[in-house]
User: Fold these one by one.
Assistant:
Number 1:
Amino acid sequence: MPLIMVTGAAGFIGSVVTQALLKEGHEVLSVDNLSRGHRSAIFEGTTFFRISIGDGPALDKLFEQFKVDAVVHLAGLIQVGESVSDPDIYYANNLRDGLTLLESMHRCGVSKMIFSSSAAVYGVPNQTPIPEDHPIAPVNPYGDTKARMEEALAWYGEAYDFQSVSLRYFNAAGASGPIGEDHRPETHLIPNAINVALGKQHHLSLYGDDYPTPDGTAIRDYVHVEDIAQAHVQALGALGQLPRKAYNVGTGKGYSVREVIDIAARVCLEEIPVQVEPRRAGDPPELVADASALQTDLGWTPKFSTIEKMVQDAFRWHRDHENGYPGG
Ligand SMILES: NC(=O)c1ccc[n+]([C@@H]2O[C@H](COP(=O)([O-])OP(=O)(O)OC[C@H]3O[C@@H](n4cnc5c(N)ncnc54)[C@H](O)[C@@H]3O)[C@@H](O)[C@H]2O)c1
């Protein structure tokens, strides 16, 4: 049974990826420092290590103790706005610590990685939908850390017997059984809209209604977290045979912030009052994936990524977990 290390396993996407890997018959070592994730999001059937990916000696020890076949690397800080105001923690956590993980893998002979990258590597795109060969030009430190990790992985592949693929997710959404989105603070639109509908917040802050888009609000490509997890399972199986080093994970269809709010209001059967705020630093007007390469090369198709289902699943989870994950 292949043994996969999942970093960021206590986070939203990491816990769903873990669930999908276990279902596929893999064994999982869960790694997370719990700086942002939740202990209760860690799966029972996995062995959990509370360590940072920046702790080289602790990682070496793990790789010596367990024969890890591949690492699915999701650990990281994820807030674009925070990365603009505090680039130091983003470069330290996402890039420096990410490189420490790579060094440890190399030292210990672990040579396979699936890396959680992001649409943020494209910056403000000059075409939409965005294909993978679009120039890499991030407009915020978060996206820059992802782009630099992708480069390091590519050079590892050139120099060493090292196989990797970067999955550039667009906007993860939805929920999966007992797993939901509980970022603190929450910066993502769908959970915040739901929190307003559930009366946990008075209004929803809408950042920017003067973008060059049809209704003036930013357009994003939302993809169900279960579809993202499935992309990891398939990418692991095909590692070493994929023609590209990076793939978009999206649906090819974008929704504006106002459209998402309208859908959330319909799904939750509640009004969602909005307060318009200035644009957030580092937020491009439109990010929609050309996701055809992942479909062609990997046979991946998004099965659950209709906007209604993503909002419904998220709503169900938030309704059933009034205070999010227990224990913080
Ligand atoms: N959520 C999205 O829409 C989205 C979109 C594109 C890319 N991504 C990427 O996917 C990954 C997972 O995102 P998420 O939404 O699940 O975020 P999350 O915050 O829910 O999970 C990230 C996890 O990483 C852990 N972590 C952070 N730094 C760590 C470190 N140094 N050592 C060990 N653990 C550490 C946190 O404690 C947390 O549990 C991230 O790398 C993110 O950049 C997410």
Number 2:
Amino acid sequence: MSYVSDPIRCVARKEHRCTWCGEAILSGEQYFTWRSVDDGRWCQSKMHSECYSVMGEELYPDEGYIPYSNDRPEG
Ligand SMILES: [Zn+2]
């Protein structure tokens, strides 16, 4: 069983790391965050808004992707 919460759009108050591209989400940037359960483990994903939209268009989390190893799209 897996579960994914609804994504929330936030403004970073400190630096985070994008789960999609592995680059920094800088303080003041907008990003999306959500939680998911995979094999009984909670994980929290955070992504640049452009990375989030690419992920939504190209492949859904159910199909899997390798975190931190994807290309950041042009802003
Ligand atoms: Zn990113």
